[in-house]
Protein 1
Amino acid sequence: MGLLGFLGFPEKGEPTRPKFVELRSAKWFIMFTVSFAASTDIFMYGLIVPVTPTALERKVGLSPDKSRSSSLILVLCTLTNLKPLPTVQTWTSILLALYSAALLAFSPVIGYVADRAESRRWPLLLGLVALEAATALLCIGTNIGLWIAGRLFQGAAAAVVWTVGIALMVDTVGKEGLGQAIGYVSMALSIGTMAGPLLGGVLYENGGYYSVFGLAFGLIGIDIFLRLVLIEKRHAARWIATETKPLASIEEKGNREAATDTITESPAPVDDSKSETLEEKPVAHSPLRQAARLLSSYRLVVSLWGYFVISLVLTSFDSVLPIFVEDTFGWEQTGQGLIFIPLMVPHILDPITGFIIDRYRWTPRYLTAAGFLCVVPVATLLRLVKENTMHDKVVLCALLALLGCCISMVMTPIVTEVFNAVQEKEDNSPNVFGRGGAMALAFGLSNMGFAAGSLIGPFFAGFIRQNAGWGTMGWAMGLVAGVSAIPNLLFVGGWILRKPKPAAAGDQPESETS
């Protein structure tokens, strides 16, 4: 057996049984691999954050910029070429925006390609190549061009993980248990979000610049191993089904032969032109037509908006929270990193949220609406944090923890709603998306919503805080989330006033108006 055969890729001639195929295609192993990939991706993003300002100053040679009040204006001037401003703060903001722009641009493309590919593992491996290239470019980057390329590759790699990885998990888990599986991925994402900046800062302070990238390449090595070892369930079925259910296979073959004989004995007249029309008409051949069909689902549009608002809230804090705690409490880099822990810790509850929506199918509508609605009072109460006192520090941490709970209630139902929206489209119009379906493309479109939120969030929060203050920023954020509760209550799971159809074979509980 060659290397490709061991890894589960097809070889010339009759494919051989890969080693440990049951283990490598097990549901728990695929879930762990996807969760590790998501955690590693966001960990890499955060790992570089504390390194970037000093690296741009010392390795690239940019001048430091201590003025925060005009940072947004500096970024806009730089992007529009009105005035070249080669400063550390300006380029730090631009590099963050480039990551989000790459995620926005690559997500739908990668989603469409993944749906057409024979295996989801190949796109995952290509995403890993992009992540490794990004890390290498950032490691050796001595000019701003290498840093730009590195951040673009990082965004492309993130698009692969959050499009192909989630689609692979959907393929593996199916509808039953999907919510809990997504919950584990979301929990892994939170772990990576917290650990990245903290470990990056500690390693950089105690071990130097290259120790940070040593850890990065080590994690990429583990990720490479897991993605190479993984075998998709649909590819492993040829060996597992043959070995574990030989009698069933023989019985199926006999049933097929009997069915063929029955059809031969009693032929029925068929209108060939009509059957061809019915088969070909629903298939959307081009990616644009497929995307248009997906976006005609109000359930998917609401999910996309949910992605956008979640990203807007989280990235708003990325831009203003470190500056706020430094100005108010005098906290340095360590404190600025630790303050995000209360916001992320509640995501350990994501698997519980997933279990609830798997067990009680009617709950996603109310969880998402309640989560967004609860953001309103929590974000508004941020105005209570004003002074450098222990009371205000405790209040800030408590409010951030409550806000994290609100996002935790919303995240998992929103992701599973993407799957449900696509499945409803396919149930109503079989073969509507052709061979391969459109699951990865749907998650790619949703990632565009997340990327758009991460592009707008820092500017949204930074501009309001700069011009109207911390308290105004809080209630403005709450207003956006509160308004979002309305479409989630009305449309998640289908139109709220539409009564379920009577139970019948092949019918869905709710039908969609496209």
Protein 2
Amino acid sequence: MASSRASDDECSPLLHSQHGGDVVESQQHLKSRWWSIRVMYLTMFLSSVGFSIVMTSIWPYLQKIDVSADTSFLGWVIASYSLGQMVASPMFGLWSNHRPRREPLVVSITILVAASCLYAYVHVPASHNKYYMLIARALVGFGAGNVAVVRSYVAGATSLSERTGAMANISAFQALGFILGPAFQACFALIGENGVTFTAIYLQVNMYTAPALMGAALGIANIILIFAIFREHSVDDVGRQVHSINYEAQESDDAEKEGDGEGEGDIDQVAVVSTNILFFVILFVFAIFETIATPLTMDMYAWTRTQAVFYNGVILAAVGVESVIVFIAVKILSKRTGERVLLLGGLATILVGFFILLPWGNQFPKIQWEDIQNNTIHNSSYWVSSIKSSSNHTVEPTGCPAEQSWCFYTPVIHLAQYLTSDIFIGLGYPVCNVMSYTLYSKILGPKPQGVYMGWLTAAGSAARTLAPVFVSQSYAHLGPRWTFSIICAIVSLAILHLIVVYKRLVAFAVRYRL
């Protein structure tokens, strides 16, 4: 009976009148609130897609527009997105505390749309093209800083009984965006490197620029949905809502709650910091996985730029399908096993995935200079990327660049190893991502979560900033053996840390037996 009553209350939350007294929430208001939350799911998904949709093509595009770019600069280009997001998140979050959330959302998405268009035009300048790409990606990341606004809105627009599921859905949409973005890129690979040129507006629509233009179009659609569907809603822990939102009063009230939590119990700060550390590691290793995919396959299997973009897009699309299945399964399994067990299992699965990538055997990768006529090697810091054949077509060199000394003594990573690793990492990452968000939300309990969610966002952005820089440097100078060994060590330490703090990672209500 009590369970049935709780279920009814959850489906029919209460509205708190300004004049006192509670009234049952109308069906129209309930529908408006949840459609607004769904628009936030879409916004989170599109922000993630903006990051991942060009991931498999950044390296070949960078090589094409600027011959002076190397793998070290690639790391900075990829990291610039997360750096921009890390800077913008607290700014947009603070803005949303004082003004309607529609304002920072529309401004941030507009920046994302403009930056995506800039990315499509980085080939136009006569020089320094790689720096224009760096700026474009940093601005895309700055526009994606609205994730703090999205999370704070969803946390404030749901009751406690609704919040865990809603926060889990946000992390699922975010992870899905990271994984499915390359699937769109794979489709655009069919356009080819030349594509279609619109001379009047200096626009080349090819396999490199089409994904960015698609991201801009999706951003415009997102803005339209925010104006047409999104409405401000704020409910308390039991689902009651004040008719009007006073942002300054709300901020003051949140501050009072944070300082007044002694009677209800304090948040376990060790659990909070531990979850942030684990989340950092999870996003760090997955960012490495996405960053290294294209250069690794081009070096190991002598794939051309077009082949690397297409094949990796297909592979990551398959991983995306796998992740959708995992998202469905994880909600069912978490009710039986709990978040901690699944988080531990997810980390162990990621560890296995990177361990499989360690090179072994007697077969070595093809050296890139074999495709250069007469085996001519130019004495410069940058090896010539293409030569002209007698038929006046560009011959693209393939294989492991001779400037990377490890190419001569590091065994090739077999394609079966790479595909098996993709399967394991694609299984472990979505589990860890969803479980860390869900567990974090439960650890915080009824306390205001805005500041704490900001910490988690910053931890994730910092991970995605540092990971590409780390892997581009270590891969270029040390090779895959040392790179993947270091990653295995990092994930092993994360597993050990989780085991040590395992008993403290419990829900707020369980800790205080509420």
Protein 3
Amino acid sequence: MGFPKRSIPQTLSVLLLAWVLIHCQTPIEPEEEEKKEPMTKPDTVKLEVKFEQLGCPSECSCTAEGAVDCAGVDLTEFPAKLSDSTRQLSLQNNKIEEITVEHLSHLHQLETLNLQNNWLTTDGLEDEGFEMLEQLAYLYLANNQLTAAPKVLPPSLISADFAANQLTRIFPHTFGQKPKLRSVYLHNNKLTDVGLPDHMFNASDSLEILTMSSNFLQVVPSNLPSSLYRLHLKNNKLEKIPEGAFDNLPNLRELYLQNNHLTNEGMDNETFSRLSSLECLDLSNNNLSVVPKGLPRNLMLLHLEKNFIRSIPGDALISVRNLEYLLLHNNKLRSRSIHPAAFQGLKKLHTLHMYNNLLERVPRGLPRRAKTLMLLHNSISEVGRNDLALYTLTELNLSYNKLTNAKLHRDAFRKLRVLETLDLSGNALHAMPLGLPRSLHLLEIKNNQLTSIPDGTLTGMDKLHKLVLSHNQLKLNSAYQGAWMELTALTTLDLSGNQLTYIPTDLPESLEYIYLQSNRISSVPASAFEGTPNIKGIFLRFNRLSVESVDESSFSHLSNLQVLDFGTGNTDIPLKGDEINGKKIKDEQET
């Protein structure tokens, strides 16, 4: 906002060697949040070798250690004459349609095969080809056109990526009998319950990561390996979780079930209770009506947003004493439907999101050690004297509720002794509230009906850096004399969209940015900014200024000024690119 963009320095590593080839090819991930572990490779900086005896196709780059890189060279066929000693083969981003047994039969040392983003179909893959790759550890087939997985993959497999295909079927030995298998990626396919074998991972007891998001599953897959620590099942058609589905997963730490059709009737109090290691549970965007009971004790992050939750029983959260993040926004909660003891015992909870609900007042019994409380976009019309007894709270958002000065107790904030950020925007306040915490760094009260800043309201706020009072009804005499001068740390003051006729005369010396656009200011006198030598940005568009009413000397001493924005909406004011006393006038969009 008023600063030219900085160029990002680029660091180049220069090696005094001839023929240096830098390899850094990692598979493209169709879903960003479902991360794969790094692919094991030799040192990525190698001397390029293209001797015919190594079997390096002309379109490709090869290293003496057996890495062959043919990525993105428009191949339509599997490369011929590959060396028997090939260990890593990168064929991603081509147009290969077919791979036969003959293509692979001699690659006995192959460890990594990357075929992402080609034109492969199930008919174009011969099952026996992969089976004979006895050293194959990493197989990447994402972003192809497969409708069924290969029937047999080698037991040496460590990671397999079949994401973003059209898979409808998995076979028992696709992923079964793989003692080294650690990760399988099957998201963005067309898998249904009938397309999965009963024991899909039989004797694959090292599996840690399984992603099956964005398919058509209606039931959680059965007989999952006890070694799992991350399970993605979001964006499916899950309606219920069968009894005991998660009983044999003592190592599971992350479970993602968002964007399904789960209801409270589709699970019981024991559904999650045996997940003794679970730290993150995402049940957002389902059809839950009540916070589920029987949650595991080690849970740290609980997503329940975007459901239809109407109540929180007193014992629903009693077991999750390690909970740190509780996200309940976008539900149907009312204050009276939250049991007073619902949050009791959550001594580690520091982030509570309850915005976009139907709360008519601040819920009772909030966790006293919370640091972030989001209550915006509710119907809260009052805050009592003891509603906010939250001694460690640093961020409070009460914006876009129905607060008025009459029902906002003057001592409502008295216990918020370390509060740094307070947002009261979008309410019906006609005066800045008294008793605001002196610890504030950021205060926003935009989009209200403020007509006054009562005497002493800003006294003692020597930590406030940013004050946003835009889109109110403030006039020049709305603030008590010396109000702005008391804010000795203030760097940003936003008074845009008010009814000011003059620039305030008691601005603090610390000020760097002042927003005065969309007011009724008709002049800029020589003394307007004499007390703000550090100012960098002045925004005055959409006022009633003219060339004659702007004293150029008012800017002459502002050595740090970077943006002087008169823009549009004034009368005969100099346009962008003109200068006032050597200062170039900029458009706000230009900055």
Protein 4
Amino acid sequence: MVGSLDFSALRDLFSILLLQVSMWGSDSFLVIGPSEPIVAMLGTDTVLPCRVSPAMNVESMELRWFRSQFSEAVYVYKDGMEQVGEQLVDFKGRAELVKDYITEGRVAVRIYGLRISDNGIYKCFFQKGSDYEEATLELKVIGLGSGPRVFMVGPEDKGIRLTCTGKGWFPQPEVQWTDARGEKIPSLSEDENQDDDGLFQIEASLIVRDSSKTEVSCSMKNPFFGREQVETISIPESFFPRTSPWKGAFAGTFFILGIFLGAVVFLAWKERQEKKRLREVQKEKEKESEAKELLKKELDWRKEKFKAVAVTLDPDSAHRNLTISENKKQVFLTGNVPQHCDASVYQGQEESEAVFSVLGQNSFQTGRHYWEVEVNIGTDAGPETKWAVGVCSDSARRNGWFVEIPENGFWVLTYKEGDLKVPTSSESLSLRQHPQRIGVFLDWKDGDLSFYNMVDGSHIFSFTKVTLCKTLCPYFSLQGAGTSVTICSTSDDTENCPYSSPNTSVTHLRSGDMGVPREANPLLSA
């Protein structure tokens, strides 16, 4: 029996060694990250380590650390050097590669001066030739704030109100009241808020009615780190409120007086509020009228100073899944096009195109120009419905999967998941309504590209102070069933949009202000 067990163990060991030898003889590898979350204090430095198995020299590989999306690069190492062009702005100057053991397949990215925004999930991606693997890491950034500080507010509801405050915590701490015997006391209320840096401020309240509880403690504990801070307060018995035989009589009298005074105050307040409301309504009407007049003047000035361009589409630049109209003024999707094109699906697959785009035949190297387009998203608009309108460099790469951002030579206004956005911000643009007809104004000399709602004249967004040193072309991309783009005549008549249908449904964005202030975004050259 013992001999048979020994033979089985030797056979398993031989199989494992054979598997290891087969892996060493091929290019296959695994990427391994820490099995537990990396916990680090706010403001300190930390490292995100990864290694390959079996151990090998990874100097010639592409190494990438990123957040939830592949394009959200924290650090990129390729062709033996750092690639800062793909790095997120938040990590520029704050991330470096630790490569002391790169020849053994062990590397890490060091992040300096941790911020609350650094908290979350990361991925490390290693690619060698056509083989690539990745591993997931979790970084927990913690902040041990000040406090708790316990204060005795005063008598309330037959007891003494206590408050416990703390600030500068992350994540939100666990608050617990206890008496002198260590028994837990539930909080009456807990209020928390986050400051501009994402740190939590906490205020918990408690009313102590039992005069025997002369000592009460408040503790705050970080749920990840387990570190706890405690402060205790002593309450003299004389501070607890005592009942008085006159209390009931005084309470009844004050109650009647309170009702009478409250009624008088309420009537006076109601009259003042009504007058104030009427004044505010009148002011709002005047402001709205002035705003419309200013918008009209600005748009009229632009249409006077900018040259109207009769843009036509270039069929030779169109994606094979796009159809161009005979007069080259409209583009729409061909049927049976896959709709769920996502960057993660096409990662590493240059032959699969996820963006369906086309250029205008016109090109610009100087002067002021403008054109108008109408985008229809159809009645079957869904999460996969997307479009982009703007300009791009004639040298921008549009084959395979690409991202429409200024660093790649694209300055565009995009629609995705029911919101209008620009690639320089993750926030959606807050507009009163979806712009059915969009004016694109290009000022080459001043480096300005502006988008306007040509129906109500409101300003949508502007790229300003852009250094333009190459040829630019009108750019359009679309995705989703029923989506189409129509180039309009630049007159004020909305009927001059060929092929535009009055029955086409329009998805409205969330309500907001009439206009959005211009945003100055220094952008890279195409």
